[in-house]
Fold these 4 entries.
Entry 1:
Amino acid sequence: MPAAKTKKAKRPGKMERIDLRLRSDQKDRIETAAYLRGLSISDFVVQSADEAAKKAIKDHGVWTLRGEDAKAFIEMITNPPPPGARLKKAFKQYVEEKKLRERKTN
């Protein structure tokens, strides 16, 4: 009788490695913070860096305007200035090129 096949536990995605160089005061601070949180230094660094990365990505995609900046932005969106000569020229060129592309596909 053949031996029963056992399922192997699936490992999470391949782990990557990052090497860092830091000053001794930075290392001491990181070690202390990791100890206070009950984490290994590696886990602390990974969690902290990942949180900082997520925040940086979010901050890059989200604008927060307050006070006069918010008022000026809303004013420009709701009451934009009339198109200038360069914008009119660019739009005319776009329309002409679009017509040419449509003719080529038909």
Entry 2:
Amino acid sequence: MDARQFRHARNQAGLSQQQAAAELGVSQSYLSMLEKGQRRLSQELARRMVQVYKLSPVSLPPAQGSWQPKMTDFEHLAADLAGLGYPGSPICGRDALPETQVNSC
């Protein structure tokens, strides 16, 4: 959510800044600064906005430092899975293929 969307969501909920601020537990001036993009929205306040403005939880901004998948190559993936005790696919098992094809899995 950006600053413009904060104001739009509040207006859609039919709340004045004063009413919304009271329900969110912040001052009206702080809410005004949020809506102007002069303050950053905390995760806790974002959750309260979802409840007060009756928004979908999908509208929450992603958490900072949220999980991002990393790209890896086959060797790293195999080592990571082996570390977890993953038995692997029977198709790629050493007993399932001739020696010349084992390294192609």
Entry 3:
Amino acid sequence: MFPLRAPDRVGAFSFDAGPLSIRLTGRAWSGPPVHDDAGYASAALAYQLTLARTPAARWAWSSVDGRAGAAGRGGMSPAAWIAREEAAVATAWRERLTRVSIDVPASGRR
């Protein structure tokens, strides 16, 4: 995982610590490294947000299929890789949406 902005809090929890949704509401986020014998450990990154009246926030999360660092992103920085991936997704959606048409009866048109 490659956070583009450092999180305000980071936590790792064993499976036996209980549901992550409950752990997130508590203060016990830091501590020793976590080892989970069952392999079901969880982790979370927390960010403090303050949104303006017309709220907008852009978040990107990058995880590379078990390949390490920049090698998994073709040598690109995380920000450049995410920008490329977002552009590819936007292009794919535009192509799909241009094939959609909606017929509205005259009474429903403005």
Entry 4:
Amino acid sequence: MAELFQQIENLLNPGTGKSYHVFKGKHCFPLSPSESNKFDPDGLPSIKGDMLKSVISFIGGPDAGDISFITDIQAKTYVKKFRKKATVDHSVRFPNIPKDGLNLMR
């Protein structure tokens, strides 16, 4: 959703020089694992370059509530590798998106 809003903002405000992708990363374990990814001693891939790191930086988390619904032990262990991030005020990042649109990202 955030990626979509960023692209809409780019269309609404051309020439601002702010065109960028919100979520950066080279892979997203386990959906699109990287063949060149290094593995940690726990047998899971390193989080370096994982797109989930960008998502967490953007929306905040993961906290116990975010992790509680994950039932797969490996997935839960992997998500716990990411440091908890505070939630970002999206109205600052997307000043031209209406409040109702920002609520969709929550």
